Amino acid sequence: MLNVLSDVGEAVQEQAAAKKPRGKGKKEELTPAPIDTNYASLGATLRHIDPKSTEYDQIQTYTSNTQGHRKCTLEEAFAVERDDKGFDANKKIGNRKLLWHGTNVAVVAAILKSGLRIMPHSGGRVGSGIYLASENGKSAGYVGTHGHTGIMFLCEAVLGKQRVINKDGVIKWNEKDPITAHKCDSVLAVGRMEPDPTADVQVLLGGNKVELPQGEVKANERDGASTSSFQQSEYLIYKESQVRIRYVLKMKF
Prior knowledge:
The protein has a single domain (about 35-250), classed as Phosphoenolpyruvate Carboxykinase, domain 3 (Alpha-Beta Complex). Helix content is about 20%, strand content about 30%. It is built from six helices and 14 strands. The radius of gyration is 19 Å and the shape is globular.
């Protein structure tokens, strides 16, 4: 809750700075509409995706085939375009995947401006990192809505070499770097269920090949999956520069 309030406070301060009145005695000028000011404060361009396009159809398939108990439907999709030198520095690392992330609708603007962050005192079942999922149903549980409307992200994750685990307690709750000693780039907490990997397709994002799951959820055939502590796979990134938001999705829950 404190992390959410911090993001809300940051967004409010940015909007207040953008609307700060000019000094007395200066010639009155036309000011942008509030919605344009708010959009400009994001520091990113949102490209509306045509619902009749292949791009939209792939996102729709990924959504519908990986639903969980908390159902949602895709209403609108926007591609996020921004300059991100930190992310671009990972060009030599392969094994990239488009993964889900859910959050509270109140902090979407702040996240779009800064990117996904690792809070100083954050933690979880797989340490202190950015949690992503290959199932919409996993991330949908973390979405805070306004009425029936929620926002979800699809993020390009630079996974590289993965440290694979299938038990709780292997990584401490607030461990910040469980990968360097294992010469890995990320962690995969193998789930007992996983979207059928044979249906994955490759898309080109920023000149990089990125895996995009399209299959229905089924029993995971990966070694150690059947006895895993994790029902659904969790993908953990411990460096903020290895995650880039590619799509922001308006969902009806």
